[in-house]
Amino acid sequence: MAKGKHKMTPSEKSQARWGLAFVAPTMIGLIVLNFYPIFNTIYQSFFKTGDFGMGNVFVGLQNFASVLGGNEFWRSLGNTFKYALIEVPFSIIFALLLAVFLNRKIAFRSGYRTIFFLPMVAAPAAVAMVWKFLYNQQFGLINNVFGTQTAWISDPGIAWISIGVIGVWSIVGYNMILLISGLQEIPHDYYEAAEIDGATGVKQFFKITIPLLSPTIFFILQTRIIGALQQFDLIYMVMDNSNRALSSVETVVYYFYTQAFTYNNRGFGAAIVVSMLVIIMLITFLLQRAEKKWVFYN
């Protein structure tokens, strides 16, 4: 005999209503702030923006053909990858070294952790002002200390490196905190057994710490690649429009901002964003495939 559907009691109905009420703000926020802009951007990418945002004209794949067929998109994409090649690996390496050092029992350990994490909570505008002063060719602290006249952010040959250094400095504290939490999950018994077997500290680091920390390292790697490929605010605040090195550090998101909000070509800008979204999705897919080979789950 088939059982009938379970009827909810008044208490269960009340709990369900309260549960729905608690998750409703999050669901509404996701729809309004995430899902709707995504689908609207994809929709706008097939149109040519009309005057004052009205009277859009459907152009099909013309915007994508213009984006992918132009040199500026590929140049900005190359700049984006150059920035990521500096920020991602160096921020992880420095953060890992700091995490290992600050995971030990040393004096003022909490203070050191706070100092290294401070750039993460500092206002981006304040960070940009400080680094612009440090990089200033005539009055900057770096040139005064080393007795040089290097144009750190106006020389096209080194400006992208200078921007990358700021990116590493800004994010290394956040990566460090995540790695410290991962280190604290590794049982100390493994290290004691390794010491009994005669393993040195360096060998323990590469044979125990790195493999057991690989899930955290991979998470940071994946999120930082995505974050680096979306870099905008740092370049926008550090580089002036008149800076001759701007073209050597202009990222895809900065290129989108210029096209969409400076030239008011929203459809073309939407096509840039959708193209970058596809690239990020492809990179994420490849990283997920590589996770099985790179990540060790104990």
Describe this structure in words.
By secondary structure, the chain is mainly α. It has a single domain, classed as MetI-like fold. Helix content is 73%, strand content 1%. It has a two-stranded antiparallel ribbon. The two termini are 47 Å apart. The mean pLDDT is 88.
Q: Keywords for this structure?
A:
two-stranded antiparallel ribbon; mainly alpha; single chain; MetI-like fold; 298 residues
Strand content: under 5%
Structurally, how many domains make up the residues? Answer: 1
Query: Which strand order spans the largest sheet, edge to edge or round the barrel?
Result: 1-2
Could you state the CATH homologous superfamily?
Answer: MetI-like
- Report Rg: 25 Å
- For the terminal residues, how far apart are their CA atoms? 47 Å
Query: Low-confidence runs (pLDDT<50, min 5 residues)?
Result: none
Number of DSSP strand runs:
2
Tally of DSSP helical segments: 13
- According to CATH, what is the class? Mainly Alpha
Give the overall shape, derived from the CA principal axes.
globular
Instruction: Please state the second-level CATH architecture.
Output: Orthogonal Bundle
The profile of the biggest β sheet is: 2 strands, antiparallel
Taking all residues together, what is the mean pLDDT?
88
Order of helices and strands: HEEHHHHHHHHHHHH
Helix content: over 70%
Label the structural class: mainly alpha
CATH topology: MetI-like fold
